Amino acid sequence: MTGSTRGRIVLAVESSCDETAAAVVVGAGDGAWVRSSVIASQVPIHARYGGVVPELASRSHLTAVRPVVEQALADAGVTLQGIDAVAVTAGPGLAGCLLVGLQAAKALAWARDLPIVPVDHIEAHVHAVFLRDEGGAGEDPPEHPYIALAVSGGHTSVYRVEAPGRSVVLGQTIDDAAGEAFDKVAKMMGLPYPGGAVIDRMARRGRAEAVELPRPMLGRGLDFSFSGLKTAARYWMERHPEAVQGESEAACDLAAGFQEAVVDVLVDKALAACRAEGVPRIVVAGGVACNSRLRERMVAEAGRVGVRAWIAPARYCTDNAAMVGGLAAALLERGAGVRGEARARLDIYTTRRPST
Length: 356
Ligand code: KG4
Ligand code: ZN
Hints:
356 residues, alpha/beta, 6-stranded mixed beta sheet, 5-stranded mixed beta sheet, binds 5'-O-[(R)-(carboxyoxy)(hydroxy)phosphoryl]adenosine, binds zinc ion
């Protein structure tokens, strides 16, 4: 594979929520070539509960982590002997889930006396646009600084990214995350978990203009709020009971109307941040960045105001370990990596990266 034979070879582990993932990447400047990316999804385990059950998630990581790591090594055609560093998501995420990945990373590093690079999950999502692979990802990554909109099941924030792993929060949600709002509205509509992708698909058949919903905090600063929008969607459903009947016309209209409201707010705030910071580069990251309407509108509207947009391919937007390895490779270039005895003291964090 072009460019993949040079640079540090990083084995990465991700277990912050409901996907057990491992990847092998090869560092290349701020970017990295993806040699393998394996994801064991727990969606079937949690689907019947309509959301992630933390203890079931931790236990499932415990049994999946070793086969997933072995598969990632095998797919990349390397053994542990060929690895230069181990990367792992240290937070934020579910505590019991993070502990499994970190302990696996410690064991792997211990076995070969390798450095460990603990990585912030959200920073890894954002850095995914620097990943390169034979599928054409990451051809022409952004220069620093850039503005990043991170939209996932647990987070909705706007950052100014100065360098890999060095960013300032410009705004964030004061209640629900965008992905959480998608999933909760989908659940109210009786749709399967996780609902974001289902709403995206149904919205293509719906008329957004048929459903009037608020655009919370639009034009007011860089913070977000989605809980009022979720409640407004519930009231709409109460007035239109046919919207809770599978993929009925009213359900598709609601999906389109709700999605449009979320996208309006996300696009507006991301571009407002670019304007306020005087930075004409926007990166959109996290699971909600898979949303087809958000991708289409962000690229079009950014272009209209002279801002260039980068959005990773869907396979690197939802949780994966390649993004963790990619950020770790860039951090290793800058001297990161915990070695020797200090590795044993590494701990997880569940809400935000401790300041260094
Ligand atoms: O980044 P991610 O895989 O996990 C977290 O770190 O949370 O994001 C998962 C979230 C879920 O809320 C899911 O519904 C949402 O991303 N999502 C979508 C789409 N695909 C995934 N939301 C809207 N449209 C989509 N196409
Ligand atoms: Zn995530």
